[in-house]
Amino acid sequence: MAQNIREIRYGDKDYPKALREIPFPPKKISVWSKNGELPKTKHYLSVVGTRRYSAYGEEILRKIIAGLAGHDFTIVSGMATGIDTIAHKSALENKIQTVAVLGSGISPTVLYPKQNLRLAEEIVSSGGAVISEYDYDMKATLWSFPQRNRIISGLSRATLVVEAPEKSGALITAKFALDQNRDVLAIPGSAFSTNSAGTNRLIKQGAALVESAEDVLQAYGIHLGVGHPSGVSDTLDLSPGERQILDSMSEPRDIDSLIRMSKMPSHAAQSIIGLLEIRGIIKKIGTDYVRI
After folding, report:
1. Which of 172, 196, 219 corresponds to the end of one domain?
2. What is the pLDDT of residues 92-123, one digit of tens each?
3. Which positions fall inside the Smf/DprA SLOG domain (predicted)?
């Protein structure tokens, strides 16, 4: 493993241009990759969120990342458990390169979290990179994670916050992004969910609201052209009742909520929900239904 790690210093020509632009850039970064370099895709998107994610957070993040395939993106995250891990794995599943920024050294004896060592190896073997500003064998500390967050946001034009409670490391990364003159994107959630308190507040403060991959592409100035499918309700042949149910599903909802919001007789609403599930337009996760 050690022979694949290259140290790049601030004065080197291969030092990432994006990091030169931020306040307090790292003096050096160690890059573990096939060629000792970061992926050379056109667009970098940073993704952050809570370790204690919900089924909703996982589902919408996977859907968004899948929608970025084919648009020359690299996904950047911190390889922590939770949303970070989902971001990296979703990128790999969709053949999108990904970069993990560690809060520890890169040595397998200190790499944190230990259970993601295999994930780190998969990132590298797929053409991505694992990077750190810390010495090879430095263990993670309480301060190293907030400090490395400025690199996560600094590498990308925008940072997407998926789920974040009011006190969250993801919000620290969003603050770094704003200080670095980067864009902040946020996925909205239920007003009753503590995981959405931080993201909803970011949206109130001016972060771009993201519900789909198309919203991310638009933030990067990528236009899909006339006639490109922008949503399931616009591209499928739906009855008025089916459309009414789907319009109620801006977020995951249980069957009782869907029936109540549809204002249909219970048996009629249940029948439509069943048909939508059979057609693969919605799916059930736990007790809630979500759009696919």
Report:
1. 219
2. 999 999 999 999 999 999 999 999 999 999 99
3. 8-220
Count of the separate structural domains present in the chain: 2
Same domain, 184 and 265: no
40 and 168 share one domain: yes
**Do residues 60 and 113 share a domain?**
yes
**DSSP assignment of the chain:** -GGGEEEEETTSTTS-HHHHTSSS--SEEEEESSSSS----SEEEEEE--SS--HHHHHHHHHHHHHTTTS-EEEEE---TTHHHHHHHHHHHTT-EEEEE-SS-SSTTT-SSGGGHHHHHHHHHTT-EEEESS-TTPPP-TTHHHHHHHHHHHTSSEEEE----SS-HHHHHHHHHHHTT-EEEE----TT-GGGHHHHHHHHTTPEE-SSHHHHHHHTT----TT----HHHHS---HHHHHHHHT-SS-EEHHHHHHHHTS-HHHHHHHHHHHHHTTSEEEETTEEEE-
In a domain, 226, yes or no: no
Evaluate whether 129 touches 121 at the Cβ level (below 8 Å). no
Predicted confidence at residue 108, as pLDDT, reads 94
Indicate whether this model's pTM tops 0.85.
no
Domain end: 219, 248, 279, which one? 219
